[in-house]
Amino acid sequence: MAKKQIIPTKTPMLEQPPAERIRNYDEVPYGYTPEQAIAEARRCLECQRPSCTEGCPVGIDILGFIRLIANGDFRGAINLVKETDALPAMTGRVCPQEEQCEGKCALAKKFEPVAIGRLERFVADWEAAQGPLPIPEIPPPTGKKVAVVGSGPAGITVAADLARKGHDVTIFEALHEAGGVLVYGIPEFRLPKAIVRREVDYVCSMGVKLVKDFVVGMAATVDELLETYDAVFLGTGAGLPWFLNIPGENLNGVYSANEYLTRANLMKAYRFPEYDTPIVRGQRVATIGGGNVAMDAARTALRLGAEQSVIIYRRSLKEMPARAEEIHHAEEEGVQFMMLTTPVALHGNGWVKEIECLRNELGEPDASGRRRPIPVKDSNFRVPADVAVLAIGQSPNPLIPKTTPDLTVGKNGVVIVDEKTMKTSKRGVFAGGDVATGGATVILAMGQAKIAARAIEQYLQTGEW
Q1: H-helix or E-strand containing 461?
Q2: Interacting residues of 34 by C-beta distance below 8 A, sequence separation 6+
Q3: Domain residue ranges of the chain, discontinuous segments joined by +
């Protein structure tokens, strides 16, 4: 048998040119053609013991769906993906594949890994282009009812998995549009909202009910939900932004990334004057932080008309937690990076005008495993900025814990769960995603949701806690 020829690099995916895309909100990568997808799928070594699936938090049969693509069976490929991932068009776009499935790919030991995320996106987009998404077969009703609080990636995943078991599932969403961080946090140019709506509609086609503009903790408490529902899943995310607690944070023009991106994305500030959502369109925008949210904010600033968009990060590029692809796109678009820099004050007269910073050196690794930033004495300098966006992290909203006395929470307000079952301290209540971890990734939230769905199914069947 002839030895398989190894193609060392990924099949390229066309993108909007940087000079064009910073003037619109359209998605940056165009996706694969069928021919490109087949060519990329045929790079797979078809390992006898594929390690790529080990890196997938939701356990997709990666070798299986790639083999089907390689044979041109796109329908079979998407059906196989959706056995474990209800949101493939989204996970194919926003997962940190380089750290997960692609990071485990055998090809990655010497060459570029198989572009697993691009292939997942391809089959999801291919299915959507064929017409209405087929509705999966649902078993007869079990008579059990489950309330899911929050319609982000964790909530949608739990709802889909439990609906497939025949349970009566209702999602309660606080906002006027479903999707959680997928609609208020991730910008249109990275994840088009039509795709989020399509995936939510797919889950609702299984019989899942969606109640919007319903704030659990105000409209009804968790205890009140438990009077009607047999189990409750909390997937409320981490919507409480962190601040630096430095002088000047109350100046006008200073935003949390949560507010800045919500105004731009969910409230459509980028489509002014069609949507007259107030947002300060600064000429010199500084984003403080180094994660994916910081990249989203800095790239959004350019699309809102900023002449200069700067990332201020206290460590070096090597320690920056954002995905390599997001950093690359930001650099291409002209975002400037100010590394080893810590803000210590914001200055202005009613409106922010400057950010006072200190230079840093890197010391020994801290608890995160990254080298600790150490301020350099008397290295103060100022950065001109008429908008400052703080993208340094977030915690769960405290509303539900405050209205659920016997729900145990830990540091920064995260709900304490048993990681093997996602059970909380309160009988019948499960939790997963950012509400149980703090700010993390879409796919990790979905992985926890799948663990919770299995545990909820067992609880509904046995009543054992």
Answers
A1: helix 442-462
A2: 72, 74, 126
A3: 18-129, 145-239+395-462, 243-392
Q: What is the pTM of this model?
A: 0.93
CATH number for 243-392 (one of 3.20.20.70, 3.30.70.1560, 1.10.10.10, 3.50.50.60): it is 3.50.50.60
The percentage of the chain sitting over the pLDDT mark of 70, rounded to a whole number, equals: 99
Looking at residue 240, what is its pLDDT?
Answer: 92
User: Can you spell out the DSSP letters for 173-208?
Assistant: -SSSSS-THHHHTS-TTTS-HHHHHHHHHHHHTTT-
Reported as a pLDDT band with limits 50, 70 and 90, residue 1 is very low
Rounded Cα gap, residues 197 and 408, in angstroms: 33
Reported as a pLDDT band with limits 50, 70 and 90, residue 3 is low
Give the three-class secondary structure for 55: helix
Q: Which tens digits make up the pLDDT trace of 211-269? A: 999 999 999 999 999 999 999 999 999 989 999 999 999 999 999 999 999 999 988 88
User: Cα–Cα distance between 293 and 222 in angstroms, integer?
Assistant: 30
Which CATH code of 1.10.10.10, 3.30.930.10, 1.10.1060.10, 3.40.1080.10 fits the domain covering 18-129? 1.10.1060.10
The architecture CATH gives domain 145-239+395-462: 3-Layer(bba) Sandwich (3.50)
The mean per-residue pLDDT over the stretch 169-193 comes to 95
Closest CA to 95 of 132, 126, 64, 124: 124
